[in-house]
Amino acid sequence: MSKINKDVAAGLLFLAIGLLFLTSGWMLPFGTWRKIGPGGFPTMVAGLLALFGLGIAVKGLIRRSERLDLLSHPRALLAVLGALVVFGLLLQGVGLVAATLASTLVAACAVRPLRLVPMAIYGVLVGSGCSLLFVKALGMQAPVVGPWFGF
Amino acid sequence: MDTFSSILLGFQQAVLPVNVFWCFVGAILGTLVGVLPGLGPAATVAILLPFTVGLDPVTSLIMLAGIYYGAQYGGSTTAILLNLPGEASSVVTAIDGYRMARAGRAGVALATAGIGSFVAGTIATFLLSFFAPALAEFGLLFGPAEYFSLMVLGLLMSVVLARGALSKAICMVFVGILCGLVGQDVQTAVPRFNFGLQDLSGGINFVIVAMGLFGIGELVRDLENPEARTVIKTSLSSLVPSREDFRRMIMPILRGTGIGSVLGLLPGSGALLAAFASYAVEKRVAKPPEGMGNGAIEGVAGPESANNAGAQTSFVPLLTLGLPANAVMALMAGALIMQGIPPGPTLISEHPDLFWGVIASMWIGNVMLLVLNLPLIGIWTRLLTVPFAYLYPAILIFCLVGAFSLNNSIFDIWLLAGFSLLGYVFAKLQCDAAPLIMGMILGPPLEENFRRAMWVAKGNPSTFVTRPISAVLLMAAVLLLILLLMPKVGSAREEAFQE
User: Fold this and answer.
1) Which of A7, A12, A14 to mutate to test the interface with B (most CBs of B within 10 A)?
2) Global pTM?
3) Residue B131, CA distances (Å) to B125, B138, B317, B471 in order
4) Measured between CA atoms, how close is A147 to chain B, in angstroms?
5) CB-based contact B417 A84, cutoff 8 Å
6) What gap in Å lies between CA B31 and CA B39, rounded to an integer?
7) Those residues with Cβ within 8 angstroms of residue B451's Cβ, 6 or more apart along the chain or in another chain
8) What is the pLDDT along chain B (499 residues), one digit of tens a residue?
9) What's the per-residue H, E or C state across chain B?
């Protein structure tokens, strides 16, 4: 645990992304130097990324760097990501107003104290405002009140 | 077409009611989001970009430019009133501006920033209209090899100005390039890197990435570190600078404009370096020097003019060579590409209405900001007192609606969540996201030009060093790299970013 500092973690992340693209592009034709195929350039970049990532990680192991505290305050991150996911899951089912309400309530969990009632009213207001502006006025392709309500 | 009639053409475009209207909306929205603490110009542009897509190209770019300088203006407002620079380039404004505000001269400081930005914007706009066509003509000489080298230089410059370790910033560029290549190969239409997902076959939209990395990433960080915000009350009566103030701000504004206009032209530097350089100069010429840092009006006038002039001239490399100078310009480049107008040296000759229209509208936008924002300062400060607890859900919903409306696709919302998480992790690992966006925008043309250059040179990579312009550009890149790797310069760079 003590070995994992910011440099090691960043290096490993870059190495992983590099390897992901290397393996994913493995089957693409590299081509020749004269006529480079679809796999040529990405393979070079991904290879360099993996190499650099490895270098950063090794350097991090040798030299001390700041300790990693990735999830010291998970509350804000989880609430915000939760709000994004809830909106995505609900939008086409319940429509923009209800999805906004749900998303606002989840996002509200990021700060304490949690004020449910004012945030719920606020969510409905924002949702209605967005429906008027984006769906009615600007023609966004989303239901205001979704099919899950039986309309 | 001579410059004069070109500028006339630009003004004909810019004063069309539809363009004036959207320029106004952009400037106001930009200021609105820009004054929100923590959201800098890149985040603001990313959040608002989806709403410009439906407009026609000229109007859309005019609105985006409005958003950009509105956001910058908003950034200096928070720097002065809250000591919270919304972006790196108003860090120096906060030094003297906040002191002025505490001494009861907040209105004067804000007015100085506005006047300085306006004068600088006006001068820089005219410089732009004289230099840009010449540079574009030079750009027409470029073949694929030259473009490849130019982009390598541009990417390296973006790395220089990134926060955190150099090696990490370079890796972020690589990650960005790879993200930009997802979808299918343009030359052969072979699908690649879609990881078996049909939704990825059209590529990853850069707006989603920028929104996740800048907008939502910064939002989460603000939520994690709630700072006590005490807004300094300002009354409208104290807005007008005194005669003495005017006398003291003239020279700093002109010096700042000069410094900003030149530094803004360099790819990679933009407004940030300009503001720092201007502050350094003002500090040197100030008499008595003790005044600087203790609420000197020069310390607001110089850097604010410099960063606005730099912001204006940083459009030059984008509109003439297709090379974005910073993350915001990369977003502009992306917006142009989405409109079907790839930025490059032929842009001025093929779309003169767009080029000159945008230039003229910049000036109109500057006038608007000056006339509208000074009286509206009261509203902006009141907005700053709205609890963040009520602001951030609305920003989130705005991002979500924007992301969804790009393609009416729920998949884009999953991507947004993914890149928000990635942005959070990168921030925790001290990896700056700006180079990633630069890489993502420049990745596809980089590959394209590399392949074409190799084809023309029959597979001989020495073409990049035997063609003179390409060789000079690459040499500059190598010199820059060597300079950065020298321990003395490297540590100076790291110090510069420690506030």
Assistant:
1) A14
2) 0.86
3) 10, 11, 11, 24
4) 16
5) yes
6) 11
7) A36, A40, A41, B187
8) 577 788 888 888 888 888 889 988 888 888 888 777 667 788 888 888 888 888 888 899 888 888 888 888 888 887 888 777 766 677 788 888 888 888 878 888 888 888 888 899 889 888 888 888 888 888 888 888 998 998 998 888 888 777 778 889 999 999 999 999 998 888 888 888 888 888 888 889 888 999 999 888 878 887 887 665 566 665 555 677 888 888 888 898 999 999 988 888 776 656 677 888 888 888 888 766 667 777 788 888 898 899 888 888 888 888 888 888 888 888 999 999 888 888 888 888 888 888 888 888 888 888 888 777 777 777 777 777 777 778 888 889 988 988 888 888 899 999 999 999 999 899 888 888 888 998 998 999 899 999 999 998 888 888 888 888 899 989 988 888 888 777 666 666 665 554 4
9) CCHHHHHHHHHHHHCCHHHHHHHHHHHHHHHHHHCCCCCCHHHHHHHHHHHHCCCCHHHHHHHHHHHHHHHHHHHHHHHHHHCCCCCHHHHHHHHHHHHHHHHHHHHHHHHHHHHHHHHHHHHHHHHHHHHHHHHHHHHCCCCHHHHHHHHHHHHHHHHHCCCCCHHHHHHHHHHHHHHHHCEECCCCCCEECCCCCHHHCCCCCHHHHHHHHHHHHHHHHHHHCCCCCCCCCCCHHHHCCCHHHHHHHHHHHHHHHHHHHHHHHCCCCHHHHHHHHHHHHHHHHCCCHHHCCCCCCHHHHHHHHHHHHHHHHCHHHHHHHCCCCCHHHHHHHHHHHHCCCCCCCCHHHHCHHHHHHHHHHHHHHHHHHHHHHHHHHHHHHHHHCCCHHHHHHHHHHHHHHHHHHHHCCCHHHHHHHHHHHHHHHHHHCCCCCHHHHHHHHHHHHHHHHHHHHHHHCCCCCCHHHHCHHHHHHHHHHHHHHHHHHCHHHHHHHHHHCCC
Dihedral over Cα of B191, B196, B198, B199: its sign? negative
Nearest CA in chain A to B416: A84
B112 closest CA partner among B278, B296, B365: B296
CB distance A41–B193 less than 8 Å? no
Q: Could you read off the pLDDT of B285-336 as tens digits, one per residue?
A: 876 666 777 778 888 889 889 988 888 888 888 888 888 888 888 899 999 9
Instruction: Work out the end-to-end distance of chain A between its first and last CA atoms, rounded to an integer number of angstroms.
Output: 55
List the single best residue of A4, A58, A77 to mutate versus B (max B Cβ within 10 A): A77
Nearest to B394 among A9, A25, A126 (CB): A126
B168 contacts on A by Cβ (under 8 Å): 10, 14, 56
Q: How far apart are CA B411 and CA B168, in angstroms?
A: 29
B450 and A36 within 8 Å at the Cβ level: the answer is yes
Mark yes or no for CB contact A45/B177 under 8 Å: yes
B424 touches chain A (CB under 8 A): yes
Which ipTM did the prediction report? 0.91
Of B177, B192, B420, which is closest to A80 when you measure between CB atoms?
A: B420
